[in-house]
Records
---
Amino acid sequence: MANRRDFITQAGALAGIAFVGCELFPQAHAQVRRREVRVSGRRIKTIDVHAHAVVPEALALMGQKLAPVYAHATADRLKRMDEQGVDLQALSINPTWYALDRDLVTKVIELQNEKLAETCAKEPERFVAFASVALQYPDLAARQLEHAVKKLGLRGAAIGGSVEGAELSDAKFHPFWAKAEELGVLVFMHPQRTRDLDNRLKGNGGLDNTIWNPLETTLALSHLIYEGTLDRFPGLKLCAAHGGGYLPSYADRSDHVCLTFPERCAAVPLKKRPTEYLKQLYFDTLVFTPEALRHLAAQVGASQLMMGTDDPFGWTRTSVDHIFSTPGFSDAERAAMLGETAARLLGIKASRVA
């Protein structure tokens, strides 16, 4: 395994974050003029809620290696943002620490959140960040979230869609949900790899990503609905990656199971139909086609959608154009998806740029 110094050198990272240090490459960045996005002639501050980073030092603490996609992205991050017309990204780190013991994960999270805060302080017009939390210890996660928001200026939390096989609807996670609701911050949920379907996901097509990522999000949201978590914490602000997985595309089946087999929905009586909960959740726009985005908006409401790119993994470099090219949206709805909704939820003062 590479040592700590090797990780930092490989990343070429500013403030210990792999990818950000674009001022280390001023010539490369200076060649790209930032695309200015306008709606009805008004300059909109565009915000990407689904953008990843890592802290190489934290990976070293965990004995994990830096993925090549981060090592090679350093000089290109702001360039990609400028080319697309992305003014600001909300950075998140995908959890790889849910199996760690309490002492080690405390050190990892402290390091990650401090480095995220440092990076955002150096580039405040381009980055905000979601805090990392040790969700396997919900009481600790709640304290970490409060510290990150109140002391470090981070804007919410990034979590996985499960915790070592445990569903987020489990009562043991209530302290974390209660703290997120109390603070009024956005929680960004990204799928978390588990071993449950390993045999079924083998073979061509990268099904452990292609199928599993949206499937885990679908499962996580369904449990949060059916187990009453969203009733218990009605003020929770939760954003699901990848357009909410498969749930919005076949959501009405969630209602009809309770009509066809009412006994299957009787253990935890819900306050409203399952599909109605989708209208209190948020989703990124990473669904690839205009028809998919139109349908997602029709199911959950355009007010619940925020632009997402999944940078630096390259799933899309047309996130802004995706919103403009989808017919049927009003200018106000496009402006909201491009940045205004994210600005409100993330506490960013101005969603429009003069």
---
Amino acid sequence: MMFTTLAASGVTLYESWKKMRNAHLLPKIQIDAEDMVRQVEVLGYDPLTVMQKKADKTRSKTYRDFLAGFASSVRSGGSTVSFLRSKLRSILELQSAASLRSVEKLGTLVEAYAVMMIVTLCTYILYVVMSSSQIFEVMYSGLMRARGPEPFVYVLIFLIMPSISIVFMFFAHKSRKSTFISLVSVYRKFIFPIVGVSIFAVLVYFVPQLQFLVDPIRLPIVVTACLTAISIPSAVAYYRLAVENFAAEDSMPSFLRDVTEARKIGLSPEKSIIHASKRRGYGRFSGLLESVRSQIEWGVGLKRIFANIKKRIQSWPVLVHFFILIETIEIGGGSTNALEILAEYSEKNKDIESNKRSMLKPYIILAFIWSVLIALTTTIVAMTIYVLAQISLPGMTQASSDVMQLQITLFSIGIILQTWMSGFFIGKINEGTFAAGFKYSAMLAVTAYVSLVLSQNLLAGLYALGSAI
């Protein structure tokens, strides 16, 4: 895209490479540009020869075709702009096809994760059924205290299942990339809550007055509150950042189109930007454009304006498009041909990203479905076994009731923790970053807890009504 707009502005091949040394948003190309200039100015090679050498060495087929084709087009004396526009259209088509394939891969990954959650459910149910013998053991032996769950159960719930989720998160990280450059500020919000929750856990463990919080009945809601408290600050920070950046991604193509059309009627590049920024309908992006317009009217340079934009925007596509727009204006005077290419590319790129997001959104619903399903099914099985034991052997001791309560509490905590972690997986799948998972993790943890409470209360009421009848 950068080479195409520069060529349309009348910039030579070698000057284009020199300009690419300032493309900090494209670090790999920046390294190649530095090497290109070094070989030409220090070693005395011809730029076309260097491009051909790079084409022979690169492992990227698309990059190799671009370099070799560009060099061949210049040597033959053909129109480099026509070649670059043709190559750009080809790359967009490849990008669109790759986007569809990536959605299919991500869909397969989510389905595999859903299967894993079903296996988790089956494992929980299997253990509940097998451990039901402990209830009868307590009843027959007349023990006054219930024996705790086996150590393997703790390993299963708090180590094996979370580890499997982390493996799926790793594959999601490799398959889905974020459009945001840096989210350090969001992840920093995660530190203080987790430290606070850790201090709270230590106090609960060592202070006798707080021991009531670890009662089997209260423990699930305490765990849910702690996990939610960990997620909320980062979720709020990410929401604020994402709203502005997604609005910029959605409105940037329209802004570039307005700049292009204003340039076509003879306005200067700066006045075209001012004219385009006055349009209504950009939503939250209007605030940034008003700032840009004010800086231009006060005589601030475009490079300085771009530096100020980078402080507010973290979206890589938006920053790249602004960078190309400014370079096109400063080098070639903002030719209408170059701006038309930029606007057309931006519109097509937006369509590709919008389609991908719309195709991935249904998987959010699937996450809530498996959270409710695991909570309901596990509770139903556990309480059904307990009620059947009451019906079969009347006069159950308090110890038998404690066994059942321990089991339900333990699996409730495991379910809440598992659904909380699955929120980060869904956030990565849907929006390309784990930071988006903070909001989903909090919502899924609360959903799982509410499902557990409702199912327990509903089943307890139904079984009481059935026994009364």
---
Amino acid sequence: MKFLKEILSKPLFKATSLNGISILIKICIGFITSKVIAVFVGPSGMALVGNLRNFMTSTEAFATLGFENGVVKYVAEHKKEEVKLKQTLSTIFLSVLLVCGIISVILFLFSDYFNQSVFGSLFQYAFVFKALAIALPFYIGNIFIIATINGFGEYKKVIYTNIIGSFIGLLASVLLIWQLRTQGALLSIILTPSLLFFVSLFYINKEIRLFKNISTKFYDLSFLKSLSSYSLMALVSAVLGPMVLLAIRKNIILNLGIEQAGFWEAMGRVSSYYFLFISSIIGIYFLPKLTVAKTNQETKSLFWEYYKGILPVFIIGMVIIYFLRDFIVQLLFTKEFLPVSKLFFWQLVGDIFKAASIILGYQFFAKKMTLAFIISEIFSLTVLYFSSIYFLSIYSIEGVVMAHAVTFGTYFLTLVVYFRKSLFA
């Protein structure tokens, strides 16, 4: 207990207190949504929802041009310089609006093609992509506004927006799934973030009259070059990652059936909930410090603060989750999902390696190491895809989570070698 008290009293835990309520609410609402999906649409519906989520992640990356982190950075830098702020907002907003409009037209006109690619010929959900085409500008507009608010340093407003958005998402999801089952589950993924646009617009108008600061006369094409590294890293991660996950899920469906794909998706949902804590702590506390660290010694102290302070607590949590796995599955889903329990061991092993890797991976963003990031990302995704095919053929669905463990074990060792000077100097 003394060990835990010492860890919990450290500044990095206090740094996350402002965001803690938002994360807990998001997790609780995620639990409820997962339960509703499990009850009303079952494992097969869960698999289809996973396919659409992966597709949405890639679509979002293309539609935002990967500019989200760049918006935060440059709004923060120019918020007190009226002309530069207008150039920043106008250039990014108009560029994203143009691309978003093109993508919406493509989604609407080729909805049947996207249905075939994402869901397969057995399912007729082309209307989902037409709905996405209409909702996409609002969805992307919300991301742009949230990033702008974040750039102004209004963290409380971002958190309030996230909390409100979580409750809107819960109400919309429950209502749609209850009334429309699988179709409702798919539509809820599209409509919820689009509705949040109006909440975000309310908060940004308190800070700045957004649309009065956006004009074609302030559009600066040369400014886009400064965003290129952020854009490239975000696009590689947000496009290739979901594409590989989508390909793996389709391979599971082809070889083992859609229910097994639903079990894998359910396991991924559980993993995503507890990883919210890790990503929040790194984003709020470690990333800003890594960005300003000037020497290997400063970077080393941050790495080891994470490994001594955060990782042990995370590992303890993983052990507890493993022994409570049957209870967790029935709490979050239904008895129909009990086969998910056998996936926990290798998923948790992989997640421990992932948690150990993530602090090193953020160094790529902190120091804008674009090429190294792209190579490492392609390498890890390649290992994940081919190892999942290999292990699936031998160990069935459990082989996919074994591939997850192998991938992040390999990724962690690779990053340790690459950043050895910063870790052991």
---
Amino acid sequence: MTEITKRQEYLLGLIVREYVQAPTPVSSKGLVERYGLKFSTATVRNDMAALEDLGLVASLHTSGGRMPTEAGYRYFVQKLISESELTEHEQMMIRHQFHQARVDIQQWLQLAASVLAKTARTASLVTAPVVSHARFKHLELIATTGRQALLILVLDHGSVRQQMLTLAEPVPQETLSEVAGRITVLCVGLSSEAVRQLAGQQPMLDEEIILLTADVLFRADTRHEMVYKDGLVNILDPAYLLDRLEISDPAERDELTRALAQSDIPGARQTLHFLEEQSLLEDVLSEALSSDLHGVQVMIGGEGRWDELSHTSMVLSRYGVEGRVSGALGVLGPTRLHYGRAISTVRYVAGLMSDMMIDLYGESDDSARADIR
């Protein structure tokens, strides 16, 4: 890529900020007049053309203004956001809301979703924390039809996982019960990795069941069953939302229509689909949040991996106590996201949630606390 100049960087930042405020192409004349730029509209047009050649902005037609591309948003996030966009007063107000809340995890989760949506002015999600490294407690196997069997796995913290299995050949119930008993004695108290390591030392059927059990146990470590959502009204277009929610009251319809008049339809619909589709949500969260506990992950346009999210952006973070318990939180919506504010808000709320988890569960082994700067 040709090197971008400082002036072009500055103009790209202005284009992104303008387009976030109102989803209409940004013109050179508008930038010069609105920001009192000391260079001409012709110079701005030339720089806009250079940015377009670099793939950072796009235009609907040659004489029109420009809008950011996915690459432009990504460059903006990586290079042009430097400081927190949350004021000290906003941080104090957010802290106060959490400190006023009862020692109730469900209330914390609902509050976090509400604070994220209101502060970042978009949709939000917060998953309930899950205990790290779930451990095996008890296994049952129930024969159904043909080669099908139902696996029922009880975890050490009391939750239950069920999964239908297709075995290599039909197995009678008596044999399945014997296998389940042997595996329970062998694996009680073990993590998914420890269970998997035992597979190669067992008879063929036991090995097959142990490997399947290890998979179920591994997914229990990363599965986010409870997801708290807020702020959908900030991003969904009126017609689609009103149709989905079956809202018939004229006053309520008018209020929602006014509130949603500036929304981005493709990204809004993708956001709703993402929040409704459990398998897609699990896939994205597992991929995006597999790194550092306190790092913020920004995903723009599905990052080329998820076509279903081609018009959607997300700012996500893990929260919790390293090695003990963790969950995920973040904001999402159309790619026309206020990235600076979203990143600042997600980082700050994740830090507060982590500190509250530390107070509840105790420090991690390295006594690391979240950075909420």
